[in-house]
Amino acid sequence: MTKRNVSFVVWGVALLLLAETWAQSPRKKLTPPKPPKGQCCDEVRSLKVQVANLTSILEELSRKQETDLRNVVRQIMDLDQQNRQQEARVTEAESRYSEINNRVEIMQLQNLQSVTQTSSDAIYDCASLSSRNYKISGVYKLPKDELLGTPELSVFCDMETNGGGWTLIQRRKIGLLSFNRDWKNYKSGFGSIRGDFWLGNDHIVRLTRQPTVLRIEMEDWEGQTRYAEYSLFNMANELNSYKLFIANYSGNAGDSLRYHNTTNFSTINRDNDKCVDDCAALRKGGYWYNCCTDSNLNGMFYRYGEHTKKTDGITWYAWHGPNYSLKKVEMKIRPASFHP
Ligand SMILES: *[C@@H]1O[C@H](CO)[C@@H](O)[C@H](O)[C@H]1NC(C)=O
Ligand SMILES: *[C@@H]1O[C@H](CO)[C@@H](O)[C@H](O)[C@H]1NC(C)=O
Ligand SMILES: *[C@@H]1O[C@H](CO)[C@@H](O)[C@H](O)[C@H]1NC(C)=O
Ligand SMILES: *[C@@H]1O[C@H](CO)[C@@H](O)[C@H](O)[C@H]1NC(C)=O
Ligand SMILES: *[C@@H]1O[C@H](CO)[C@@H](O)[C@H](O)[C@H]1NC(C)=O
Ligand SMILES: [Ca+2]
């Protein structure tokens, strides 16, 4: 397009020169009929104007080309910057990834070193993780520890409530999982660590070998929350039927575990309660049944509308009586020696 314009201009200039020589020539010997004098000079003037016009068009064109070029350069620079930003984002993601990797490696390293560690150094529970500055609530993997004879265990840590360092041993909130299970199930644990679960009696026994605090948090269907805390919580081993020992209640839910103090654990297939009835079968859970309940945190989950009709629900008598099944429960433990 530009080339054509240039040749147009060249053609115009040639025409102008031709016209000028023709106009300046004193002897007009041209064969075509002579144009009148005025017409000739008008034509030259018009050609001059045209040339000037063409020149200005040409200048404008080159100016336009320059701005076009500048725009292209700017676009390239923009793209380059975007590219650099994207690269920075990738680098950031990579560094985060490697940070997580480092954490995993540290855990593995600690796992390897655990044989030579004293038990106070070991990653033993969520409290030890909290002391090592892991302050985000969520799922953690406790490495196995030869010295303590503990296998690898996934736990959910509450790192926020009242200073954090809590290892969850139970949660009810979704309601799809049955808690009406047998001795073996309660012994090794069941459910999903982010949802509803029982950590397992053997794991709980192991985690409570040192003086331990138990905290129970509850929510009702009206959205209110209450808690009960026992500054001493202990569970005997399987040989002693996972007998419960609790002391020193505090909280605002009322003390509905005291009635279960010093009773053995019962399940649907193991009646260890202090009653002629079979409480585990009546209350449809695994628990430290007396005769039978003042609370039943592993009972049936009932949804809103059904939650006040039965006596085998998730109950805490001191708060809502024997016929009110709670919406949410969490049981969590931490060493009595823990200092946030
Ligand atoms: C100059 O060119 C423009 C268009 O490019 C045209 O509109 C204008 O009439 C021209 N002027 C003369 C004197 O030829
Ligand atoms: C609790 O279990 C132990 C053994 O596991 C047994 O000796 C004891 O009698 C049981 N206590 C009750 C009240 O059933
Ligand atoms: C549970 O029983 C033990 C032993 O009898 C007792 O020392 C403790 O105070 C009791 N706990 C509660 C909350 O009553
Ligand atoms: C009982 O609990 C209170 C406060 O929770 C605490 O100060 C006290 O030391 C506890 N007593 C025992 C024997 O654990
Ligand atoms: C709870 O329900 C049972 C039967 O479903 C009933 O006999 C009892 O009176 C109820 N108790 C309360 C406190 O509502
Ligand atoms: Ca019985």
UniProtKB/TrEMBL annotation:
Tell me one GO biological process term.
blood coagulation
- Which species does the entry assign this protein to? Oryzias latipes (Japanese rice fish)
Gene3D superfamilies linked to this entry:
Gamma Fibrinogen, chain A, domain 1 (3.90.215.10)
Q: Which UniProt keywords apply?
A: Coiled coil, Disulfide bond, Glycoprotein, Secreted, Signal
Which residues are in coiled coils?
44-110
Q: What is its main location?
A: secreted
**Name used for this protein in its record:** Fibrinogen C-terminal domain-containing protein
Q: Where in the cell is it found?
A: Secreted
Q: Which residues form the Fibrinogen C-terminal domain?
A: 117-337
Q: Is the keyword Glycoprotein assigned to this protein?
A: yes
InterPro entries in the cross-refs: FIB_ANG-like, Fibrinogen-like_C, Fibrinogen_a/b/g_C_1, Fibrinogen_a/b/g_C_dom
PANTHER family for this protein:
FIBRINOGEN ALPHA CHAIN
